[in-house]
Fold this sequence. Notes:
It holds the Pfam family IGPS. The chain is an alpha/beta fold and 266 residues long.
Amino acid sequence: MFLDQIVKQKRQEVSLLTxxxxxxxxxxxxxxxxxxxxxxxxxxxxxxxxxIAEVKPASPSKGVIRESVNPVTTASSYxxxxxxxxxxxxxxxxxxxxxxxxxxxxxxxxxxxxxxxxILDSVQLIQSRLCGADAVLLIVAMLEKEKLRxxxxxxxxxxxxxxxxxxxxxxxxxALEANPDVLGINNRNLFTFETDLKVTxxxxxxxxxxxxxxxxxxxxxxxDWQRLSRVGVxxxxxGEFLMxxxxxxxxxxxxxxxxxxxxxxx
Length: 266
Ligand SMILES: O=P(O)(O)OC[C@@H](O)[C@@H](O)c1c[nH]c2ccccc12
């Protein structure tokens, strides 16, 4: 099963990293200049949700999505097209990502950068901050409640925003207790990889006001974007659809215009 496999893999990475990271790294991470504001960048503009555009070269369900990606050029075109933030997959084994991409992309764009990986331990948070992350993802399905809360707090102490991801109603209480800066509703079931936009439609109304909410995964067309937009989410995270576009910039423009190319209906 994917989540078991990934946890096993990440535990190995964590143990290697624990050997390498020193107190100096930790001190350095605490002294870096402030992060770019991820949560604050996510609000609806002209009736459309903010777009978080993802650099995702491959995935466990689809295999290679795009051969020979230039992650930096892709991220820059996302920004030029109007993305509010960039999400960078840093997992190598399943997503063909790289931690270096995060650092390179952070240097190349001016919008906030989210590190997309499977975080189980605080060493990964220190590593994220040192490599340029403005925000990190924490997945409720992978973490004990107390661990989730502790990691969320630690990430914030390091100056990063925390995106907490849920897929079902039973995960909402734990997510809220961990004080998310942004709450993500993943339309993809991480056990079966099936996506269903109904997940966002069902869970969004249950989330208290005041927390920015994003819908994640499964947007494969402008129609899908419009459907999620109607739910009222503040942002939408899109990966595969944009990675498959001939021009990532045009892909982004198409979505943020919402299909109308115009502003508020009234
Ligand atoms: O490529 P998509 O279907 O647009 O999905 C993007 C993003 O939501 C997805 O990559 C994602 C959401 N949550 C995750 C957790 C880990 C890895 C990846 C993800």
